[in-house]
Amino acid sequence: MNHLSDLHLDALAEVFSIGAGRAALSLSEIVGDEVRISVPSVQVVNSEDINSTTLSLNSGRFGAVNQHFSGPFNAEAVLLFTEDQALKIVSDMMGSQMSLEELAEFEHEAMCELGNIILNACLSAMADIFNFTLESSLPDYTVASADEILHRLKEDANQPYVMILHIDLTIEKRHTAGNLVFLLSSASLTNLVAHVDQFIGRFS
Amino acid sequence: MSEISAKRFDMEDIFNALNLGIIVVDAVGKVLLWNNWISKHSGIQEADALNHQLENVFPEPISPAFLTALNNTLTYRLPVVLSTALHRTPLPLYHASEVNQQQTRMYQSISITPIQSNLNESCCLIQVTDSSTSIKREKILRSHSEILKKEAITDGLTDICNRRFFDAHYEMAVADAKRQKHPLSIFMVDIDFFKSYNDFYGHVAGDTVIKQVAVALKSQLSRATDIVARYGGEEFVLVMPHLPKKVAEQFAEKLRNAAFNLAIPHMKAAPFNQITISVGVCTGIPENDSNLLNKADAALYQAKLKGRNQCISLPLCEAEEYLQQ
Amino acid sequence: MFADSSIKKLLIVDDSKVSRMLIRTHILARHPEWIISEAACGEEAIALVDSELPDYCTMDINMPGISGTDAAEQILSQHPSVKIVIFTANIQETHQVRAHSLGTILVAKPVTEKSIALTLNHFKDSE
Fold first, then answer.
1. Which residue range(s) make up the domain with B118?
2. Does chain C touch chain B (at least 3 C-beta pairs within 8 Å)?
3. C124–chain A nearest CA distance, Å
4. Interchain touch C–A (≥3 Cβ pairs closer than 8 Å)
5. In a 10 Å sphere around its CB, with 0-12 CB exposed, 13-18 middle and 19+ buried, how is residue B112 labelled?
6. Phi and psi angles of residue B307, each rounded to the nearest 5 degrees, phi first
7. What's the ipTM?
8. Residue A93 Cα, gap to closest chain B Cα (Å)
9. Domain C9-125 classified CATH 3.40.50.2300?
10. Would you call A94 and B65 a contact, using CB atoms and an 8 Å cutoff?
11. pLDDT in tens, B229-263
């Protein structure tokens, strides 16, 4: 079960663009300026096939916000930004004159909130559109190297599939690109696809 | 919670002993639990909070972001965090001694988690921690770095900008002038016969002269866009945008007069026998290959050659010079 | 059954095939006689309005090429009688304001009975 049709991917992209729209609304209320978030592409691949190119992970360190969620399907969601970008996002959102070094103090909590806003918006859009309820853990934030992140994404044999959403985020004229990665078991992927089928099937 | 431990402790005692705020609300936002920490920091007793809508319990408004978050948690059953960094003080909570006095609100970190009651109702657990200490740490860090930043750009002797600041500022000022096509003036200033002053009066006196001249130059500046920096030794540099060439030349004269009027005796400086300065100024709209600083320096050199205690102005490009002749 | 049973022409503009499909299905469920055309970007929409002369149009905002609001503005300058609804996930105030300034309304996705009803109401109200 690793073949999703273009229509499946289009449906998922649409669901996540609705999530992105909600996240942008919440973030714009915090920063008091327009925030643009788009999800230009959705990919589903075997976790063994992911590498630094799939996730555009170049060198440097990355900030990762994690949330585990469960319901009709279980998954671990990871939102990835480079650490530099993460700090810049936080500093833009706080609108303060702190230097990046000082911001590190607040990076953890603020990134948790940013990730939480984006992840919850995506999950709530799925819940609305696919008509189900998901439960989720509180977000966690870690900073790691590209290798450490890839290792973690691949190590769990129970979650052999990854759904990758490329995310473009623009806050106050600063453009940032990140990835939202969902780690899925095969059963969860099957369930997710079944929901997408049901959703498309209702109309086609 | 196992049955034995549930019997050994009264859960309420534990809630009330916690060093963080705990509120539980039901699906419509009515308060079901209100621990001592919250009472202490809100000044509102449990009895006055229970079974009331959370937003009506406080005498002051709750932040809209908090209400949105609570509503989202109730609707989608997804946990939400509100960070101190982005929200500061969502709930009207104060430090214990300050309740009901006109004090500032406590900085908070909040998480809102969906929970299920034994009656199968959808409820929300709100946890509040005091993040004032981390905010204080931030403020200390911030002011510390401001001091560091100031030290990094200030000349230790004269308290005006140092060379490092000038280099960065000059680059930006030139780029600005280029972009907006407005004139920029650079003044190079040198104290005349300073070496002989040092040799005759000593280095301590020499340093005092440098300080006095720096103050005199600085006192001529009134616009926020203008800077004076110590370029090195007894040399100073001023950067001033938006001056017509004529005005810049008059200003150079003002600088020369300001130093002259200090009337610092200098026995080894004929013919005035006092401290004077020479000024080279260059005004123009910078283009790609033009160098205001070099021109101002060349002007200063001419002022020295022509006998010191004077100002020389050079145009930025030769064409302008030609037109003026 | 319908107050206005005349045949209307609707243009659906959305880069998502699924979205176009959903809007089409919902609309046809209520107005099976309507004639529906689709465009996947703003440029295509502008060309189609010239040839199809639709009565109504639903317009997404975030699409490849020009934005839906820009496309709507261009369409309305040429064909002021077309009734347009901005149907989008991008629901920030700036877009609401822009939609209103164009004389259109902004309806939030997802495509549901409710959002389709809001869309149809706007079409009928502005007759």
1. 3-136
2. no
3. 24
4. yes
5. buried
6. 115, 5
7. 0.83
8. 7
9. yes
10. no
11. 999 999 999 999 888 999 999 999 999 999 999 99
